[in-house]
Structure formats: C-alpha cells, structure tokens
Amino acid sequence: MSTAAVTPARRVASRTAWAALALFLLAFTVLEVANHGAPALVTAILFAILPDLTMLIGAREGGNGLLSPKAVPYYNFMHRPWIPLAIMVGYSFGPIDFVPLFVAGLAWLLHVAADRAFGYGLRNQDGSRRV
Questions:
Q1: 108 CB neighbour count, 10 Å cutoff
Q2: Is pTM, for the whole model, over 0.70?
Q3: Is 68 in contact with 57 (CB distance < 8 Å)?
Q4: Which residue ranges run through the membrane (predicted)?
Q5: How far apart are CA 3 and CA 24, in angstroms?
Q6: What string of pLDDT tens digits covers the 131 residues of the chain?
Q7: CA nearest 49: which of 114, 100, 98?
Q8: Calpha distance 109→79 (Å, rounded)
Q9: Distance of CA 15 to the CA centre of its chain
Q10: Under 8 Å CB-to-CB from 15, ≥6 apart: which residues?
C-alpha cells in the first residue's frame, strides 16, 4: 500500500460524503429540537459552537491562518468525530434519559461534519491545516 498524496477526486468524494452526513445531522438535530423544545435548542446551539471555542486558547499567538500551537491538541481533540459519536451511542444504549445529552452529541458531530465538508480538518503541531 502506498502513501501517495490524496487525489483531487478523492478529496471531492470525501468532502461530499461529509456534506451529506452534515445535512442528515442538521435535519436530525432540527427534528430533536422541534420534539424536545428549549433545552434541546440551547444544547444544540452550545455544542454546535463549542469545538471552535478552543481556537481562543492562545489566540494572540497565531496569525496568518495559523492556530496557536498551545490550542492545537485541544482543537484536534474537539474536532474528532468519535467523541460525539460515543456520546450518542452511550445515550442510546445507556440508562440515562436526558435528551439534551443526545442533542449535544448530534450538534457536536454536525459541527465536525460541516467543518470537514468545507475543507477544514485537523491541525498540525505548528497550527497549520493538515492537507
């Protein structure tokens, strides 16, 4: 297996798949908010923006599109899809009956999927975007 660079066609396919997932998650989030009201709405808004709040860590040290190296581990942690997915699976099969917890996972995963669809991914140690 080679470690060749990602081809433009593969990049488009990946971004299209992330966009489809983001649209599904958006519809699912809207449905959950419509069904469960204000607590779900507040949670959806909070967790839709929460991953990007990590960019405020060392905000003055970045520049020219770079994220502060201090913020990179936190940013990368918050932009991995496995964490919100685990929250949603844990809620679905666990004993906790608190819908905003599930909505938090939905909104968080929606944020990650939308970022990937728009071409934003994880960051390198120096704060630059991974390609």
A1: 27
A2: yes
A3: yes
A4: 12-31, 38-59, 82-110
A5: 32
A6: 455 577 889 999 999 999 999 999 999 999 999 999 999 999 999 999 999 998 888 777 766 778 888 899 999 999 999 999 999 999 999 998 999 999 999 999 999 999 999 999 899 998 888 87
A7: 114
A8: 8
A9: 14
A10: 116, 117, 118, 119
| Structure token pair of residue 54 | 């990590």
State how far the Cα of 120 lies from the Cα of 2, in Å rounded to an integer.
24
Q: Are 30 and 21 in contact (CB under 8 A)?
A: no
Which of these, 106, 112, 114, lies nearest to 34 by C-alpha position? 106
Could you tell me if 106 and 114 are in contact, meaning their C-beta atoms sit under 8 angstroms apart?
A: no
Phi/psi at 66 (5° precision):
-95, 140
CA distance 79 to 98: 24
Give the residue carrying structure tokens 């990650």: 112
Query: Which residues lie below 8 Å from residue 73, measured CB to CB, with a gap of 6+?
Result: none
User: What residue spans define the domains of the chain?
Assistant: 8-117
